[in-house]
From TrEMBL, chains A, B:
Record's keyword annotation contains Transcription regulation: yes
SMART domains noted in UniProt: HTH_ASNC
Domain of life, per lineage: Bacteria
Protein name per Swiss-Prot or TrEMBL: AsnC family transcriptional regulator
UniProt cross-references to SUPFAM superfamilies, sorted A to Z: Dimeric alpha+beta barrel (SSF54909), Winged helix' DNA-binding domain (SSF46785)
One Gene Ontology term from the biological process aspect of the record: response to amino acid
GO cellular component entries: cytosol
Pfam families in alphabetical order: AsnC_trans_reg (PF01037), HTH_24 (PF13412)
Key words of the record: DNA-binding, Transcription, Transcription regulation
Stored PANTHER family: LEUCINE-RESPONSIVE REGULATORY PROTEIN, TRANSCRIPTIONAL REGULATOR AZLB
PROSITE patterns: HTH_ASNC_2
Originating species: Pseudoduganella armeniaca
Domain HTH asnC-type residue range list: 4-65
Length: 153, 153
DNA sequence: GTTGAAAATGCTCGACG
DNA sequence: CGTCGAGCATTTTCAAC
């Protein structure tokens, strides 16, 4: 995989800040003319450096103002179990992020809910319906201090 | 704050999937003509439902393929300490997310690093330079199962 | 909310340092 | 590799309905 030069990184920074920048404005911002700028953007997309573009939506406005971190361990750890459980987690719309981990717990998930009532409902109606959970541990988020949607170029 | 009707939600879903959709294509997709579609999008932006647009960048391509979850507790918990520590965390470029928590640990942060070497360097050069840490606990992410950048409309 | 047309913008491609 | 410039397509914008 090829290296990213300083110009590529400036393009990425600009598009991370505003994913809707037109090629014209982007070129101006990074100090290039439109043609090479457009070629670079297309190359970055095709190489998978840019995975896509998305609108950032406000959780609160969508009725799910609270965030809970839930760590989960399974009863068994055969391949089949891990795959099925992971897929089931990813399928739940309340689950915003889900990771398979090293260490004490098998999974860490970040869930959007509406208060403790929404949290309880999620546990009972969704998470605890999944088979194979040995133990889970929940932590409410009091405040979000930072939430970047990509690593900084 | 006003409610979101089904059309608003369809607009949000489309823009979450592709943040660069033109108003024309968006209108077509949600079954509206361009004018009311554009009015709705602008209203959603002004109400803060849409917080912005961003390009999604590949961590691996940027040289930070690994993710570590670090939980931190502080020695003291006065207001000043909490605020300063939170700001310091948010300022570190490796830190992708940072939350103030209830429960056993005060903070949870998600950090992008390059392998164990990058992780050690982050700890020694960045995190452990911050004053006031009593204890921390790190967990490597083996695999990302889901990573939504906004809650589902 | 719809339609349609004018105006502006941005994209794409050539030739050329 | 980069710039410049012009034709072409889209899109935005703003009427009237």
């Amino acid at each position: 995989m090829e290296e990213l030069d300083q110009t590529d990184r400036r393009i990425l920074r600009a598009l991370r800040r505003d994913g809707r920048l037109s090629n014209t404005k982007l070129a101006e911002e990074v100090g290039l003319s439109t043609t090479p700028c457009w070629n670079r953007v297309r190359a970055l997309e095709e190489r998978g450096v840019i995975e896509g573009y998305t609108a950032l939506l406000n959780q609160q406005a969508l009725g799910l103002p609270d965030t809970v971190i839930i760590e989960v361990t399974l009863e068994r750890h055969d391949d089949d179990m891990l795959v099925r459980f992971g897929e089931a987690l990813a399928g739940l719309p309340e689950v915003m992020e889900a990771y398979l981990l090293t260490g004490e717990y098998d999974y860490l998930i970040k869930v959007a809910v509406a208060g403790t009532a929404g949290y309880e409902e999620f546990l009972r109606r969704k998470l605890y319906k999944l088979p194979g959970i040995r133990h889970s541990r929940s932590t409410f988020v009091l405040r979000c201090l930072k939430r970047a949607h990509s690593v900084e170029p």
